[in-house]
Amino acid sequence: MAIIVTFEIPGVGQELYDACISRLTDGGEFTSLADIPAPGLISHAAGPVDGGWRVIDVWESEEAFENFGKILQPILADLGHADGEPQIIPAHNVVTR
Questions:
Q1: How many Å apart are CA 2 and CA 91, to the nearest integer?
Q2: How far apart are CA 87 and CA 4, in angstroms?
Q3: Does pTM surpass 0.90?
Q4: What is the pLDDT of residues 26-80, one digit of tens each?
Q5: C-alpha–C-alpha distance, residues 31 and 17, integer Å
Q6: SS3 of the chain
Q7: Taking each helix axis from N to C terminus, what angle separates 62-78 and 14-24, rounded to the nearest 10 degrees?
Q8: Which of 2, 13, 44, 91 is 20 to 30 A removed from 60 (C-alpha atoms)?
């Protein structure tokens, strides 16, 4: 079952996001879901919110997201932001292009 994952990261902005993407892609760009080194990502959106940054992903399954977390968590820890827990909810409907 697909899941929706929301990260709310207070007190940070695009710099942290860009640093994470750079490490996830070995310095490349994130212009395709295939650029992320974990299968199962269906959609991704990120942007500023009052007082921080928000990332919203849709993953094929909780297992796929957990596998990605094994890659992302060390990066966030290295950047000093490993303390945030994402909100995870089941997706009732997912529509893509």
A1: 5
A2: 8
A3: yes
A4: 999 999 999 999 999 999 999 999 999 999 999 999 999 999 999 999 999 999 9
A5: 14
A6: CCEEEEEEEECCCHHHHHHHHHHHCCCCCCCCHHHCCCCCEEEEEEEEECCEEEEEEEECCHHHHHHHHHHHHHHHHHCCCCCCCCEEEECCCCCCC
A7: 110
A8: 13
Give the C-alpha separation, 12 to 3, whole Å.
25
End-to-end CA gap in the chain: 19
Per the listing, tokens 């997201």 go with: 65
Per-residue b or e along 31-58, where b marks 16 or more CB atoms closer than 10 Å to that residue's CB:
eeeeebebebbbebebeeeeeebebbbb
Strand pairing of 41-49 and 52-59?
antiparallel
Give yes or no for a contact between 68 and 14, defined as CB atoms under 8 angstroms apart. Answer: no
